[in-house]
Amino acid sequence: MNTAIDTARLSPPPRQSLVKLLAWGVIFATLAWSWSGAEIRPMALITDGANMGTFLADFFPPNFHDWRYYLEEMVITLHIAIWGTALAVVCAVPFGLLCAENVAPAWINQPVRRMMDSCRAINEMVFAMLFVVAVGLGPFAGVLALFVHTTGILAKLFSEAVEAIDPRPVEGIRATGANLLEEIVYGIIPQVMPLWISYSLYRFESNVRSATVVGMVGAGGIGVVLWEIIRGFYFAETCAVMLIIIATVSIIDIASSRLRKLFI
Amino acid sequence: MTKAAKVMVPAIKVTRLHKTFNCCKALDGVSLDINPGEMVALIGASGSGKSTLLRHVAGLAVGDSSAQGGSIEVMGRPVQARGRLASDIRATRARIGFVFQQFNLVGRLPVMTNVLTGSLGRLPSWRSLTGLFPLEDRERAFDALTRVGISETAWQRASTLSGGQQQRAAIARTLVQRAEIILADEPIASLDPESSRRVMETLATINAEDKTTVVVCLHQVDFAIRYCPRTIALKKGQIVFDGASSDLTPSALRDLYGAEADELSAPIQGSASFITDTALAVAG
Fold first, then answer.
1. Residue B21 has pLDDT above 90, yes or no
2. Chain-chain contact of A187 with B120 (C-beta, under 8 angstroms)
3. Smallest CA–CA separation between A113 and chain B, in Å?
């Protein structure tokens, strides 16, 4: 009799198992539901295997003949990412503070949050297409696209950091007769600085990746080159450009994650 | 002394202050006068309302609005009345130094900057927001750190200091503030006995030398008797005793607090208290 009680105690209660089973059921049902809409045809990978092999062979060996040009455009892509991120950081500081519940009252932070939501909801590619129309083809359109989208993301991340601060030091500053701005500069910003720097560097990393694609709609940088050579079926050159992008993005990722570790 | 005090504007004047939190009354018609230059202990068990009272005096909390009266004046200037803060509350706060139980320093800033924030109330915004503190204030900050005995830590991050050092830095902040009143909310509750003694001595010295009014919340009567000539005792949001600290004998405390008296009369450790010595002798 004792052993029977013990085994019952050792397995999870039946309700927990049921919930687990249900969760798996929902996951599989969702996958099955999306199958036809996404036109999943695994057989195509096998039947068209030979074609893909020929296609892949066209990429090798990569053609680095125009490497100077590719590098120049890659550097411009970096420039787009740098300015897009820098402008976003500058704007995300006030917007992030205005989004924070412990800084601004609801009638300010709710509208500002919705505004930031909309900046975030639209992909930077869409913004890039719009800005190409507004300010013409070229890197500046890319900068503006990254700037608007990244402001939305950073403002949200910054405000979450502000909402998680320790309120006691801020009260210490308030007790000296400081005004709201002084409370923010001396009580809040020193507390959130490490996180803010870390988030900004992370967004810079992502923006280098994004800057390589905003070019495809004409917003400057390596993306423009990539788009032209893909359309012209220059696959060896495409391979060279892709390798340059991979190398640059990897270097930036490694450098920035090293740098971020210093601030946490 | 009391005759002279009556002509003076009281440093702190609280009139029929009420404060109700969701469940219960934290302050129940508190009225008191404290004269300039006094050093007063505010005692009471946890939940008696002593910290709440102090926070109201600094304008960090507001009393009930419905109550008739419910006003606080500091140096003759209104802090709050009927549940509303005065419009010039920041100018009044600048004259009140507040010392917190948890020190409330900004851990990532140097001690020096923390102490310099005491001058924020009187600096123009372009100076305070850019961090360009005038030389005079920086000298004052360093002198304040020297006075509380931690000038060697001036450029360390505040978070690297011990609790006792952080509390003395917080006191230095009130010195830079040139506060006319220091309100200390349980300043020694998180400190070891030796640090507690140093913090209380620092406050007593400032009171004696600068004639700064000091009101300090304590829950150990021993400290009140040793450092503060006057004690105000609170129980369930009401003042139950206001007089000379020397009148607070153990039997008087038992009359005031009953079983709660034990919490208040915990002896200062390391100070050869008769009771603990006897207890040890019996136990040994």
1. no
2. no
3. 26
Domain B1-36+44-95+214-284, CATH among 3.40.50.300, 3.40.47.10, 3.40.30.10, 3.40.190.10: 3.40.50.300
Residue ranges of domains in chain A, CATH in brackets: 2-48 (no CATH), 67-263 (1.10.3720.10)
Backbone dihedral region of B40: left (phi > 0), alpha (psi from -120 to 50 degrees) or beta? beta
By Cβ distance, the residue of A175, A181, A186 closest to B93 is A175
Distance from C-alpha of B44 to C-alpha of B56, rounded to nearest angstrom: 17
Residues of chain A found within 8 Å of residue B171, distances taken between Cβ atoms: none
CB A173 to CB B105 under 8 A? no
Question: What string of DSSP letters covers B146-194?
Answer: HHHT-GGGTTSBGGGS-HHHHHHHHHHHHHHTT-SEEEESSTTTTS-HH
Measure the CA–CA gap between A164 and A191, rounded to whole angstroms: 10
Strand, helix or coil at B53? helix
Distant-in-sequence, close-in-space partners of B244: CB < 8 Å, separation ≥ 6: B229, B230, B231
A177 contacts B120? CB cut-off 8 A? yes
Q: What are A146's two structure tokens? A: 């990254």
Query: Tokens representing A216?
Result: 């495809």
Q: Do B93 and A168 touch (CB under 8 A)?
A: no
Give residue-wise pLDDT tens across range B93-124.
999 999 999 999 999 999 999 999 999 988 99
Confidence of residue B195 (pLDDT cuts 50, 70, 90): very high
* ipTM score above 0.95: no
For the record, the structure tokens of B35 come out as 């004269």
The Cα–Cα gap between B110 and B153 comes to 9
Q: Tell me the pLDDT tens digit for each residue of A82-93.
A: 999 999 999 999
Determine the Cα–Cα distance for residues B82 and B67; give it in Å rounded to an integer.
6
- Residue B139 CA: distances (Å) to CA of B134, B135, B144, B146, B167: 9, 6, 9, 10, 20
What's the CA gap between B258 and B267, in Å, rounded?
Answer: 17
Per the CB < 8 Å rule, is A173 touching B106? yes
